[in-house]
Amino acid sequence: MVAHVLVFPFPAQGHLNSMLKLAELLSLSGLHITFLTTDYHYHRLCLHSPTHARLSRRPGFWFRSISDGLTDQRLRSADRILELYESLTYNSSSLFRDLLISNQNQDGWPRITSLVVDGIMPFAMDVANDLGIPTIAFRTSSPCSIWTYFSLPSLVQAGEFPFPAEEADLDKRVYAVTGMESFLRRRDLPGFFRQARDISHPFLDFVYAVTLSTTRAKAFILNSLEAMDGTVLSHIRTVCPTTYAIGPLHSMLTSMSSHVLINSQSDERSTNSATLRREDRSCLTWLDNQPKGSVLYVSFGSFTVITNEDLLEFWHGLVNSGQRFLWVIRSDLVNGVEKVGSPLPSLSVPPGVVEGTSERGCLVAWAPQEDVLAHPSVGCFLTHSGWNSTLESVVAGVPMICWPFFVDQQITSRYVSEVWKIGLDMKDMHGREIVERMVRDAMEGEKAQELKRSAAAMAEKAKESIREGGSSYLNFQSLVHYLKSTDD
Ligand code: UDX
Question: Which of 437, 362, 425 lies closest to 390 in space, CA to CA?
């Protein structure tokens, strides 16, 4: 019998992206796979994702979906994530159990022998544990953020958290997160730490509870590599001893699928996008016509919401920097101006600014990001420091300017600038002058050259890790070995 793994991500773009890649990698390694998502996201995958189209034709690969219990589509935005989480816990839990039970009696759908579930859905782990199915937890966030969540009791015990209301200094150093004593400041702790006046803050409570729940899994998977996160990984292994660092997953998948395609002489194209939105590929043609390394790519990920004032400050800053730019402006990026049925929001932008961009700017509602970052015309990435975006930039060797928005992004941006030294941290800074200065610093002059060299060196490490014998390659082989043993 072939071992059969059910992969179940939290229903959000950043989670689906990396977990669908993991699912495909496991499938290429000879395992049967069922990829489970919610009806809402499954529908969008079917509409927009070439990966879905390709994998749904692959023997031994099944897609299944269940309801997330929500009827209002707007509830799936970042600010309502707790509602989605609660709805999944209370509504989808029993549907998930029914699905696993029905699997045991269904012809043509082999018995599921193990699970890889998103570590922010402990309910799925509990159902699987109840049914005696071995489960591995996968977290899609940066290891440095996960270790900070694990360190919450140390922060509280040291009196470093919650921040005293009377003392607002966000530059104050924090010492209680082991391994980060030399560079961590209050402002680098995950976003919601600032709002929490006590440890019963609902988001804090949620993040800590889900993080602790991963210790109940048989093992833990992180999308990272030893060369970037070795120190943090060694700390995480003190609480989750079997932690597989198997990233960057998108790079591993590109490498493994090209290897399989060469060997099988198949004409199957390797498109790896799990996109939930329609990609506007015209920006690649626009990039073809720009000089090498001349374009700043700007994207704030799948969730971030900014104010119209912030949008204008970025706009002026970008135009005044004199650099070329490609900017993803999602229809729901700007708070309160989403236009249903329109790919781009209507913007209230002064006319002169629009003229400036039309000469050397390109706007899209959603880009094929991995292809954009790999394009030779792209010289820098202004990012919200989402973990997928960060890894995609690392692999492409593109330096970053970080403007983190929430959860793990605040600490990831600190690592980008202070630990890996492959970008600049614009955290908490606002205003067109700052944007202009940072863009210039990252795109031209000595600092830009320095960042480019460090980014190229890090890209090489990332590529080494996924080559045969590299750390992520070997960790992935161990994971496959374990999953295959679950059919015994
Ligand atoms: C958030 C968190 O920040 C992240 O760390 C967590 O693990 C998941 O949730 P998100 O805002 O979705 O992430 O950002 P990110 O993790 O960077 O993922 C966004 C994904 O969307 C990336 O894989 C990126 O390639 C893709 N994307 C983004 C596109 O394909 N096109 C775009 O135009 C913008």
Answer: 425
Task: Write down how long the chain is.
Answer: 488
Report the pLDDT value the prediction gives residue 273, as an integer from 0 to 100. 75
C-beta separation of 311 from 396 below 8 A: no
User: Is there a catalytic annotation at residue 126?
Assistant: no
Closest of 138, 121, 146 to residue 19, by C-alpha: 138
Which pTM does this prediction carry? 0.95
**Could you say which of 4, 41, 68, 118 is catalytic?**
118
Residue 118 annotated in active site: yes
CA 82 to each of CA 78, 121, 210: distance values in angstroms, whole numbers, following the listed order = 9, 12, 12
ipTM score of complex: 0.98
Quote the CA–CA distance of 265 and 332 in Å, as a whole number: 42
CA of 224 to the centre of ligand 1 (A): 15
Instruction: Decide: helix, strand or coil at residue 370.
Output: helix
Indicate if ligand 1 lies below 6 Å from the C-beta of 366.
yes
**Closest to 37 measured CA to CA, from 96, 101, 87, 108:** 96
| Cα dist from 9 to 44, 112, 293, whole Å | 15, 16, 35
How far is ligand 1, taken at its centre, from the CA of residue 290, in Å?
25
Q: What is the mean pLDDT of the chain?
A: 90
- Is the C-beta atom of 380 inside 6 A of ligand 1? no
What atom in ligand 1 is closest to the CA of residue 365?
Answer: 33
Task: Write down the residue that tokens 């059919």 correspond to.
Answer: 487
Q: Decide: residue 227, CB within 10 A, 0-12 exposed, 13-18 middle, 19+ buried.
A: middle
Bigger pLDDT: 260 or 317?
317
Ligand 1 centre and the CA of 391: distance in Å? 10
